[in-house]
Every structure is written in structure tokens, then in C-alpha cells.
Amino acid sequence: MTRVYLAVLLLCLRLMCPLVTGIFMDKLASKKLCADDDCVYTISLARAEEDYNAPDCRFINIKKGQLIYVYAKLVKEKDSGEFWAGSVYGEQYEDHMGTVGYFPSSLVSEQHVYQEANKTLPTTDIDFFCE
């Protein structure tokens, strides 16, 4: 009888807390610049100068002319590109709004700076987690 209760309990827990599946990808940098300690405030609004197709799940696709909210700027390391983290903006991109990912900073121009990115923080594994 105890085994039945245990099985029911485990089943209920599984239904209430489904397992998260995903993969931790390689880090693109060990440090990032943010506007705040939690890296949640918008640094700037940027406009894509050309299209970019995401090579993997860490990145976002951007289209020329698209507006992007920038939340973090990875600190460039030797032999690596310079990437920013952000999410697309605009009604025509409704399906992708809120999805945060990386993109090359060289493909965008900042249109408006909301706050200075003056907090240097270490990146964490979750910064490069893909579902």
C-alpha cells in the first residue's frame, strides 16, 4: 500500500513540476556589462543594419531595420566576436518578442541609450542555456 501512495505522490509531483529539458552551450564570454546587478534593465534600443541568421539556440535571428532591446553586452575576449544580448521589438515580430538571445554588435546601431552599461558581472552557465 505504501508503494502505491509513493507512486501516486511521484506522479503528482511530475505533473506539477515537469522536467525542464535543455542543454548548456559553450560560453561566449566570461564577463558581461549590464545596467544593473541583475542584468534586467534595458541598456539601449538598437536597429539592425543587416540580416542575421542565428547559428544555434543561443542567438536570435534579426532582420534589417528591426528594433532590438539590448540588455547586456558581452565583454569581448581574444579571438571572439563581440556579442550583445537582446530581444526583438515590433508588432510584426510578435512571435519572437520576449525571446532573448545574442547577436553580433557589429550588425546593429544604437538608436537610444536608456542607461549606461557600467556594471561588470560574470556570465553564468544559465546565460548560455538552450531549451
Molecular structure report:
The chain is mainly beta and 131 residues long. It has one helix spanning 2-16, and strands spanning 23-24, 31-34, 44-48, 67-74, 83-89, 100-104, 108-113, 119-122, 129-130. The strands form two sheets. Strands 2, 3, 4, 5, 6, 7 and 8 form a seven-stranded antiparallel sheet that branches. A hairpin with an 8-residue loop joins strand 4 (67-74) and strand 5. The longest helix is centred in the first third of the chain and has 15 residues, at 2-16.
The proportion of residues forming helix, as a percent range, comes to 10-25%
Overall 3D geometry? Answer: globular
**Percentage beta strand:** 25-35%
Question: Care to count the β-strands?
Answer: 9
Mean pLDDT: 84
Alpha plus pi helix count: 1
Order of helices and strands: HEEEEEEEEE
**From the alpha-carbon coordinates, what is the Rg to the nearest angstrom?**
19 Å
Summing up helix and strand content along with how strands pair, one would put the structural category as mainly beta
- Give me the oligomer status: single chain
**What is the first-to-last residue Cα distance?**
38 Å
Quick summary of this structure?
The protein is mainly β. It has one helix spanning 2-16, and strands at residues 23-24, 31-34, 44-48, 67-74, 83-89, 100-104, 108-113, 119-122, 129-130.
